[in-house]
Amino acid sequence: FEAHAHVCVCSVGRIVMICEESVPPYDRPVLTKNLNAKLDNILLRPLKALQEDLGVQVLLNSRAVGVDLKTKTVRLEGNAPDVKFDKLLLCTGSEARRLTGLPNGTARGIFTVRGKNDLQELSAFLEENKKFNSDPRVAIIGSSFVGVELAAAFHRRGCKNVTVIGQETVPFERVLGSRVGGSIKQLICSKGVRFYPQSKVVGFTSSRDRVTGVELASGEIIQADVVIVGIGSVPATKFLADQSEFALARDGAIVTDPLLRLPANPDVYVAGDIAAYPYVKTGEQIRVEHWAVAMQQGRVAALNMLGRHVPFTQIPFFWSMIFGKGMRFAGWIGSGFDEVIIEGDIDKQQFVAYYVKDDRVTAVCTMGRDPVAVAAVELLEQNLMPSPGELRQGLKNSQDVLAIAKETAATKTVKRLV
Fold first, then answer.
1. Is 251 exposed, middle or buried (CB count within 10 Å of its CB: 0-12, 13-18, 19+)?
2. For residue 133, is pLDDT > 80?
3. Exposed, middle or buried, 21 (CB in 10 Å: 0-12/13-18/19+)?
4. Which family does the similarity line name (predicted)?
5. Alpha carbon 219 to chain centroid, angstroms
6. pLDDT by residue (tens digit) across 256-313?
7. pTM recorded for the entire structure
């Protein structure tokens, strides 16, 4: 399995995949990077391959509304029959966080971009808007990955009037710190994107039920024909909120053990954006919204559903593409960091950033240095990262990270051969 379906059910001799959408799972991160993405090109596996090659029964347009652990059934919306299971994998992903209750918040032209339907509706609106304005004014609320990636995507589409509105001083400040965030701000502004820092949205302006602007707490109104709300996401677990056995965390996540099992029921597994699992390096329960983590969790959950005893020990890893510049990140800094050590030219987006917590490197972010981030995954896993002191004094650097990773890989190969 890969944790990009909604619900996967295993019973003796069959696998059932329950999907709320009209298509099988697809590569969602592409949607914020390419506004012209074609669905056929981003399917993880075509429907025919799932059904005929893998023997999976795929239920499309099927929304799970509850799980009965006593009878081992998944309840579906409407008159659809319940689906029985021996083993159950919940991987419903996350939903876009929305701005609700704001003046004119229901005007046409305000979008989130989370699924294929969102992108189709946005594309249709942009085509319609061409009749009135060939170069629409685009305002993006949110200055983390979704917001910045969409700014680049609109720019690539030819939009010359793009504004990013953030609550932070620089993009990514809360996640990656002010120095890396400052580099991203410099990059997007060099492409003509306007950035509004420390700005709170209090409403929208509209005319004839079409959005015309974004109102800030300062009183300023940013003129806009299209508004994208990219302020994060929440676990898609509302259908389980009334079921005490799932003991949802405050943010809606489902807490699991190291095998990605529900502690209250060893036949139920959880993967992807909704899973709060114990991080192998610290033991703290973390929830990671990364594509690579979801893929690996689906595979580990499948092994354990088949009777294996494989704890999930993957070091989180993700990537982003911003105006043609690749960003890679390895590790976890959800509990914060004490220091960021920069190697390279951060102003030119050619750098390695080492994140330090309690005098240990706990994460690495790179731009223009992709192999270093990949190598860092191995070193973080094996506790082989150079110390902060060595990095500060220049005694070790990214070349050492690459060399240690290469040596470790060679050692593993020898052990396998022996």
1. exposed
2. no
3. middle
4. Belongs to the FAD-dependent oxidoreductase family.
5. 33
6. 999 999 999 999 999 999 999 999 999 999 999 999 999 999 999 999 999 999 999 9
7. 0.92
Residue 44 CA to residue 63 CA, distance in Å, equals 20
Q: Kindly report the CATH number assigned to the domain that includes residue 42.
A: 3.50.50.60
Given pLDDT bands bounded at 50, 70 and 90, which one contains residue 247?
Answer: confident
Range of the domain at 240: 15-93+234-306
In sequence order, the β-bridge partners of residue 56 are 15
Taking CA atoms, 95 is separated from 124, 158, 289, 407, in Å, by 22, 28, 11, 42
Give the Cα-Cα-Cα angle 176, 179, 183 (nearest 5 degrees): 95
The mean pLDDT value for 32-56 works out to: 93
> Of 261, 280, 306, which residue constitutes the final position of a domain?
306
pLDDT attached to residue 418: 43
Tokens of 84: 């029985």
Query: How confident is the model over 315-357, as pLDDT tens digits?
Result: 999 999 999 999 999 999 988 999 999 999 999 999 999 999 9
* 102 shares a domain with 89: no
In the chain, the amino acid numbered 38 is: K
- The angle subtended at Cα 147 by Cα 146 and Cα 153, nearest 5°, is 85
Hunting for tokens 């023997």 — which residue is that? 55
**Per-residue pLDDT, 130:** 77
Instruction: Answer for the pair 9, 85: CB distance below 8 angstroms, yes or no.
Output: yes
Last residue of a domain, one of 283, 306, 329: 306
> Averaged over 4-33, what is the pLDDT?
82
The CATH number of the domain where 364 resides is what?
A: 3.30.390.30
Nearest to residue 60, comparing CAs of 99, 100, 6, 13? 6
Specify whether the CB–CB gap between 260 and 277 falls below 8 A: yes
User: Is the model's pLDDT at 144 over the cut of 80?
Assistant: yes
